[in-house]
Amino acid sequence: MATPARQAHSAQHQQPLQTPAVDADVILEHKENIKPLASGRRAAALADVFTPKSKEDRSARLAADKKKHTKECDDALDNDDDPLAAFVRFVDWTVDNYPQGECVESGLLELLELATRMFATSPLYKNDMRYLKLWILYASIVDHPTKIYAYLNVNEIGTGYSLFYEEYCNSLERCGL
Q1: Torsion sign (Cα): 168, 170, 172, 177
Q2: Class for domain 41-118, per CATH?
Q3: Does residue 19 contact residue 67 with C-beta atoms inside 8 Å?
Q4: Cys staple from 160: which of 18, 66, 106, 127, with CB 3.0 to 4.6 Å?
Q5: Using the 8-state DSSP alphabet, how is residue 31 labeled?
Q6: Cβ atoms of residues 162 and 127 within 8 Å
Q7: Cβ neighbours of 115 (radius 10 Å)
Q8: What is the C-alpha separation between 71 and 162, in angstroms, rounded?
Q9: Residue 100 and residue 80: Cα distance in Å, rounded?
Q10: What is the rounded CA–CA span in Å between residue 136 and residue 141?
């Protein structure tokens, strides 16, 4: 006979995880406006972006969230042991909420410039994968990504990871070098 603890444990595993249903038609209607990411995108985030709402409501929500993330980054610089985490959350939020890619409204380019430059001289982040991924995302939206990778190489930022060399080689190939 199973003990009460074992019954509770097995009952937990029998319940399916509750995930919100996503209307794929909403996403399909806007697929031309979604910049693909190698890591993919969360369907729930895309549905939230494209679900019909008033443009003013969405703009107000985005402005409030952007302000909140900006404050979190400022506070993290002053108070956190790992201020990069706040910048990573802000970049992830921006990528999720502006699926069309880098645009003036998103401020992604400026955010990436700030985040990458802010910690460029920090030995704490020289071989941090999160920091390298910010640089890679930055390089993916600038005109001359090979200059970014050359800078990273000279300053030994991310050079401890094979991902750095793979992305550097890919950018050289795209430029025909």
Answers
A1: positive
A2: mainly alpha
A3: no
A4: 127
A5: G
A6: no
A7: 24
A8: 34
A9: 32
A10: 9
Q: At 36, list the tokens.
A: 């693909």
Count the residues in the chain: 177
Quick one: which H or E segment has residue 70?
A: helix 55-79
Cβ neighbours of 96 (radius 10 Å): 15
Pick from 43, 19, 20: which is nearest to 99 by CA?
43
Q: How far is CA 60 from its chain centroid? A: 21
Task: Please identify which residue in the block is written with the tokens 């941090």.
Answer: 128
Alpha-carbon dihedral sign for residues 61, 99, 108, 153? positive
pLDDT per residue over 105-160, tens digit each? 899 999 999 999 999 999 999 999 999 999 999 999 999 999 999 999 999 999 99
- Where in the chain are the domains? 41-118, 121-177
